[in-house]
Amino acid sequence: MGNSNKISIGGIIGSVIFFLSFLPYVHLIYIGLTGVLFGMQGFVVCYGYMGMFADAIFLTFFLVLPICIIYQIAFGINCIRHHKKLSKATLLLFIILIIAGLITEPVANCIHGTTITDDPVKIQEFNSQKHWPW
Question: Judging by beta carbons within 10 Å of its beta carbon (0-12, 13-18, 19+), is residue 11 exposed, middle or buried?
Fold first, then answer.
């Protein structure tokens, strides 16, 4: 009787991968707060929702977000609905990400005072503060 709530080793590994598949959304929120260089020649730095959208386009182009979403849906259909603790943890994570995503714009505006910067001096400052590998 108690076996229906037990999670197998494969289920544990799948759960870990499932929760790791939310990292791109955390990255989007981070980019919304800290900004992203945008444009063909890097003419502007976008903050808030604009930065999140620009980075989401990038992550979608390289299939990161589509793969994560497909895995989350498949895992949710197959596993989460059978385990109450896992479904509660997923719901809590989902709510936290939504709230964090919603407050990204006002927080970024408080930090940077704008949603977009096209001043060359500020763009150079942005580039020097980031941890670019090149």
Answer: middle
Residue 2 belongs to some domain of the structure: no
The pTM score is 0.84
Most distant CA atoms of the chain, gap in Å: 66
User: Is 68 contained in some domain?
Assistant: yes
What confidence tens digit (pLDDT) does each residue in 93-128 have?
Answer: 999 999 999 999 999 999 999 999 888 888 888 888
In a domain, 41, yes or no: yes
Question: What angle in degrees, to the nearest 10, is found between the helix axes of 48-61 and 64-78?
Answer: 80
Q: Of 87, 1, 104, 5, which Cα lies nearest the Cα of 49?
A: 104
Could you give the 3-state DSSP secondary structure of residue 133? coil
**Is residue 21 helix, strand or coil?**
coil
